[in-house]
UniProtKB/TrEMBL annotation:
This is Molybdenum ABC transporter ATP-binding protein. InterPro entries: AAA+_ATPase (IPR003593), ABC_transporter-like_ATP-bd (IPR003439), ABC_transporter-like_CS (IPR017871), Mo/tungstate-bd_C_term_dom (IPR008995), ModC_ABC_ATP-bd (IPR011868), Molybdenum_import_ModC (IPR050334), Mop_domain (IPR004606), P-loop_NTPase (IPR027417). It comes from the Bacteria. Residues 291-355 form the Mop domain. NCBIfam families: modC_ABC. It holds the Pfam family TOBE.
């Protein structure tokens, strides 16, 4: 998918060039007012930006050749912050409203599969007013997907939900991603959501693309603001090798070694899982640590070091082909004489399963 878009407002200019994968979830991320929604609405044809938009070989817009498809002809699904369901229609009729407008030849998503993936089969007879916020949003996603779109556009779909409801909906988004072959462009300003869901990340600043690339790579780049401060995080895709029911420890393999973590529920052996390692949970040692309570020690190479917030240094390290961050005191960075290319050991105090 590619989009080159320019739009001028009185005090805001959008000028982006997006090259996105035709699969998985791509996050459009950045601070409030940077243009995420404007960008999404321009791709949808809800704003009249100038430029070119091509999705899966379909040209939605190309001003050079005077092509501009209206929204209803772009083959897209759109999910807003607040589920915009028809209040007088049942869940069944809301979903079928989208389905009826899709010619049979274009239907690629089986309705039963959609209901199953989003866990809404038992809600079909209900009216939107009787649903919880999380259920409403799942129905809104089903309605958008029922039209078998070329692309699903989601604008902060979880931001109106409290933490509990958000945690309830996230696994459904994981399942959609695993089972449906529809690329998603996902607007968010919550880094935890992006780290969990997105395989690709576009970082926006003041209407422009600051950087774009694989989420894992973007999160660990010291030249980007994502790696600053206490929330800096790395994500790793890993495979479950084993689970020990006695110790509750699971062992996962990634490109760089093995990690062990306590998992209350045994994960499926052989499954691919995404792990999060926060920079503040990684410490550095020049010698292999001995007799430590910390479960995970890996050998690594220093990639770069940068001053972080006052008193702290952020260190990018590589283990195998995997990039991690360590947030340590500046004092420690000086004591260890850290330099690029240096070999050392990292201790990982905490690893979390994200999906
Ligand atoms: N309809 C509009 N008319 C004029 N200016 C607008 C309009 N909608 C948005 N803007 C301005 O355009 C800029 C980008 O807004 P946009 O909503 O795209 O940002 P955002 O990154 O999605 O922000 P948020 O995370 O707060 O939703 C902002 O300066 C905003 O004030």
């Amino acid at each position: 998918m590619s989009a080159r878009l320019q739009l001028q407002r009185a005090d805001f200019v959008l000028d982006v060039d997006l090259q996105l994968p035709g699969q998985g979830i791509t996050a459009l991320f950045g601070p409030s007012g940077c243009g995420k929604t404007t960008c999404l609405r321009s791709i949808a044809g809800l704003e009249r930006a100038q430029g070119q938009v091509t999705v899966n070989g379909h040209v939605w817009q190309d001003d050079a050749s005077r092509c501009w498809l209206p929204t209803h002809r772009r083959g897209l699904g759109y999910v807003f912050q607040e589920a915009s369901l028809f209040p007088h229609l049942s869940v069944h009729d809301n979903i079928h409203y989208g389905l009826r407008r899709t010619p049979v030849a274009r239907q690629r998503v089986a309705l039963e599969q959609l209901l199953e993936l989003l866990g809404i089969a038992q809600l079909l007879g209900r009216k939107p007013a009787t649903l919880s916020g999380g259920e409403r949003q799942r129905v809104a996603i089903a309605r958008a997907l029922a039209t078998s779109p070329q692309m699903l556009l989601m604008d902060e779909p979880l931001s109106a939900l409290d933490a509990e409801r958000k945690a309830e909906v996230l696994p459904y988004l994981d399942r959609l991603q695993a089972h449906l072959d529809i690329p998603v462009l996902y607007v968010s300003h919550a880094l935890d959501e992006v780290a969990r869901l997105a395989s690709h990340l576009v970082l926006l600043r003041a209407g422009r693309v600051l950087a774009q690339g694989a989420t894992a790579t973007m999160l660990s780049r010291l030249d980007l603001p994502l790696s600053q401060g206490d929330t800096a995080t790395a994500v790793i895709d890993a495979r479950v090798l084993a689970h020990d029911a006695v110790t509750h420890l699971s062992t996962l393999a990634f490109d760089g070694g093995h990690l062990r973590l306590i998992t209350p529920q045994p994960p499926v052996v052989g499954s691919q899982r995404r792990l999060r390692i926060q920079a503040r949970d990684v410490s550095l040692c020049l010698q292999p640590p001995q007799h430590s309570s910390i479960l995970n020690t890996l050998s690594a190479t220093v990639q770069s070091v940068r001053e972080d917030t006052p008193g702290y240094a952020m260190v990018a390290v590589r283990t195998g082909h995997t990039h991690l961050l360590a947030r340590i005191s500046q004092y420690s960075a000086q004591q260890l004489h850290l330099e690029t290319g240096q070999s050392l050991f990292i201790q990982v105090k905490s690893v979390a399963l994200l999906d």
